[in-house]
Amino acid sequence: MDIYFLRHASAGHYSPGSNDDKRPIDKTGEQQSQDVGRALAELDLKLDVILSSPLTRAMQTATIAAEELGHKDKIVTDDALRPEASYEQFEKLLARYAKKKAIMLVGHNPSMTEFLIQTLAGGDSGEFIDFKKGAVAKIERADRQPAVLKWCLTPKVVRAIQQASANSSRPKTASK
What we know:
CATH topology: Rossmann fold
Mean pLDDT: 88
Largest sheet: 6 strands, mixed
Radius of gyration: 17 Å
CATH class: Alpha Beta
Order of helices and strands: EHEHEHEHEEH
Number of helices: 5
Helix content: 25-40%
């Protein structure tokens, strides 16, 4: 199974006393979500399901990325992708979708980084991945095989690739 981890895009700062579950993404977050969706669309990504935390900023990120991908199915919300979710809840979520070929998970830190690291390395393995807001990672996980990180892109890298491809001055030539 291919698992795409997407951390929700930029949502500004939390204001004490406000309902953090309802905090939306900001303008930067909208751009990050569009960029990552377009980048994944260029990879011709076909997802069986997109699963998101029910929090507003994660759902907005998932919705914008799904639109850019051309994903028409409803985004499924699951509490196992909330910031305070446990790895046990996450594993149960993966087990429910084990027959799928490709899924995308949209959530928050600290849980997304923890889930990504635990899926790859198991146990308490430290903080060797800096999973920024708007970052996306692809892992492959097969039955009874260790998970393998295929790639991890920060929003700055995705944006730079988008801009470079849009502004390329190299002529497109066909090889003979």
